[in-house]
Amino acid sequence: MSTDHDLLGAYVTDALDARERAQFEAHLAECPDCRAEAGDLREVLAALADAEPVRPPADLEDAVLARA
User: Fold this and answer.
1) What average pLDDT does the segment 27-37 reach?
2) Of 4, 29, 41, 66, which sits most exposed with the smallest number of CB within 10 A?
3) Angle (CA) 11 13 16, round 5°
4) pLDDT at residue 61 above 80?
5) Residue 24: enclosing H or E segment and its boundaries?
6) Are 59 and 29 in contact (CB under 8 A)?
7) Spatial contact of 24 and 11, defined as CB atoms under 8 Å apart
8) pLDDT band at 26, cuts 50/70/90?
């Protein structure tokens, strides 16, 4: 069984259904730790959204796949 704190990642990535979202938002109103962490996670997600993807060199990819 998950706790309200366990829903934080799903909340900031919009992966909760309406009932879970309402439940978590009620928790968020009461929990300063989760509010702070939600803000931090939103900043990280915004930075990741702006990041340019980098493809590894072909020889590195081949070496990893060969060892897998």
Assistant:
1) 95
2) 66
3) 45
4) yes
5) helix 18-30
6) no
7) yes
8) very high
